[in-house]
UniProtKB/TrEMBL annotation:
The keyword Coiled coil does not apply. One of its GO terms (molecular function) is asparaginase activity. Substrate binds at S61, T94, D95. SUPFAM superfamilies: Glutaminase/Asparaginase. GO terms for biological process: asparagine metabolic process. It comes from Streptomyces showdoensis. Residues 11-197 form the L-asparaginase N-terminal domain. This is asparaginase. Gene3D superfamilies: 3.40.50.40, L-asparaginase, N-terminal domain.
Length: 346
């Protein structure tokens, strides 16, 4: 389906958070320091689009935190409280863009689009990709509705859910290894090929709510439960176990998972493999035993986004551990629900 805009001017707010698109040479490496106005000034603006800029923070995205993601979520909500705003573009570093975009998507209830973009080459360079990506993101934000949070990069449109950084330096770093893109851009048009599948959105977490610790632990040859146990001892309320294959570890790690779950820790089982689902196939410490120990399977979500789903479940106002686990399963699986997933969890 090709989306084309009518002649009505669109008001798009660009929320700047830093990243490579805002990074300049410091003498020993690149670091985010260009303002949102500076970034926007490098890009052409689509016809009939009026751009406003909000400088939220300016960091390399490897320094992203839950507090900053919550600040971004609330900035989006406050911006969309103005009915005159037609859409939002978030400029963000690529390293953790997949986490922030998915976090917002789990809470985004407005039909107006939130579009993430960034750059692989720094601000102000002759071959920079930031201006083109920003132009495309503005075009999408001014055109589509009802698709949730999107990622626009290198002429392609991706859903927040499932989209991860698959290439460290290439101009097209993002893809959903287990799914299809949402669409593409070309010749002034936005071509949407599929509608993202999303669970009903969660309410925005209450201000002042404590941020729970959620850790990621990877299984590998010779791995033992030490790091998983250390995460629990450090106060983690959730742990993502990154298994091998379709989600496998050892009997000793399965026993550690059971012990963590008995202490009220939520454990999600993902995989270090690039694509495909986690599945209960193997015993001997495999996903069969890990699920029996209480781990919740992540489906096709990779570890970073599995952690975000776990974090969102812990931040939600859910009255019991059983209901919280049920909510987590829904966030991981991502089915469309007509009712609020949070209401269903009560």
């Amino acid at each position: 389906m090709k989306w084309t805009r009518d002649a009505r001017p669109r008001r798009i707010v660009v929320i700047s958070t830093g990243g490579t698109i805002a990074s300049r040479w410091t003498g020993s490496g690149y670091a985010a320091d260009a303002s949102g106005d500076d970034v926007v000034a490098t890009a052409a603006v689509p016809d009939a689009v009026d751009v406003e800029v909000l400088d939220l923070f300016n960091v390399n995205s490897s320094r992203m935190t839950t507090d900053r993601q919550l600040a971004l979520l609330r900035a989006v909500e406050e911006t969309l409280a103005d009915p005159g705003v037609d859409g939002i573009v978030v400029t963000h570093g690529t390293d953790t863009l997949e986490e922030s975009a998915f976090f917002l998507d789990l809470h985004h209830s407005d039909p107006r689009p939130v579009v993430f973009t960034g750059a692989q080459r720094p601000f102000g360079t002759g071959d920079g990709d930031g201006p083109g990506n920003l132009y495309d993101a503005l075009q999408v934000a001014a055109t589509v509705r009802g698709l949730g949070v999107l990622v626009v990069f290198d002429g392609l449109v991706h859903a927040a859910r499932g989209t991860v950084k698959t290439k460290t330096l290439a101009a097209d770093p993002f893809a959903d290894p287990s799914g299809d893109r949402v669409g593409r851009l070309g010749f002034g048009q936005v071509d949407i090929e599929r509608e993202p599948v999303r669970p009903a959105p969660l309410p925005v977490p209450a201000a002042g709510r404590p941020v729970p610790r959620v850790d990621i632990v990877m299984h590998h040859s010779d791995a033992d439960p030490l790091l998983l146990n250390a995460a629990v001892a450090a106060g983690a309320r959730g742990v993502v176990l990154v298994g091998t294959g379709a989600g496998n570890a050892t009997p000793e790690i399965a026993a550690a998972v059971a012990d963590a779950v008995s202490q009220g820790v939520l454990v999600v089982l993902s995989t270090r493999v690039a694509s495909g689902p986690v599945a209960e196939v193997y015993t001997g410490g495999g996903a069969v035993d890990l699920a029996a120990a209480g781990a919740v399977l992540a489906g096709t979500l990779r570890p970073g986004q599995a952690r975000i789903a776990l974090l969102a479940a812990l931040l939600a106002d859910v009255p019991s551990p059983e209901r919280r686990t049920a909510l987590l399963r829904t966030l991981l699986e991502g089915p469309v629900r007509s009712e609020s997933v949070l209401a269903a969890a009560h």
